[in-house]
Amino acid sequence: MTKELSASHNQRRSQLLRGVLDLCLLALIAERPRYGYEFVEALTESGLDLVSEGSIYPLLARMERAGLVDSYRAPSAAGGAPRKYYRLTEAGAAELSSGRTTWSAFTGAVSSTLGT
């Protein structure tokens, strides 16, 4: 792939992810409470390696203000400073469920249009 195509590909992936990153974070938190860097690791393992901690923390703060997640501090297993963990609220679980339905309908329509 040429540099221009690669840059275009990454830009498209980044734009697509930006629209659903909140749902991805909610889905990860629904599995278990997590702290910041764990989100980056989990997203990278899923193939979403374009996300940095710098884009996750502001989104987590917005989701906390919106009542979708709440946070608590717990000691680090490595013995360092306590870590801030995020867990899903009832409102967050409802938002995740709604978002999954919307995403499924959207991706179905796009797949149909693209012929995939």
Describe this structure in words.
This protein has 116 residues and is of the alpha+beta class. It has helices at 3-31, 36-45, 53-65, 90-114; strands at 34-35, 69-74, 83-88. The two termini are 22 Å apart. The mean pLDDT is 90. Helix 1 runs antiparallel to helix 4. It has a 3-stranded antiparallel beta sheet. It has 4 helices and 3 strands; from the N terminus they run αβααββα. Strand 2 and strand 3 form a beta hairpin.
List its traits.
3 strands; 4 helices; 116 residues; alpha+beta; 3-stranded antiparallel sheet; single chain
Low-confidence segments, given as residue ranges, are: none
Please work out how many helical segments DSSP would assign: 4
Strand content: 5-15%
Give the beta-strand count: 3
Report the structural category.
alpha+beta
Distance between the termini: 22 Å
**Overall mean pLDDT score?**
90
Biggest sheet overview:
3 strands, antiparallel
Sequence of strands across the biggest β-sheet: 1-3-2
The topology string of helices and strands comes to: HEHHEEH
Shape: globular
Helix content: 55-70%
Short description:
This protein has 4 helices and 3 strands; from the N terminus they run H-E-H-H-E-E-H.
Topology at a glance:
Blueprint: H1 3-31, E1 34-35, H2 36-45, H3 53-65, E2 69-74, E3 83-88, H4 90-114
Helix pairs in contact: 1-4
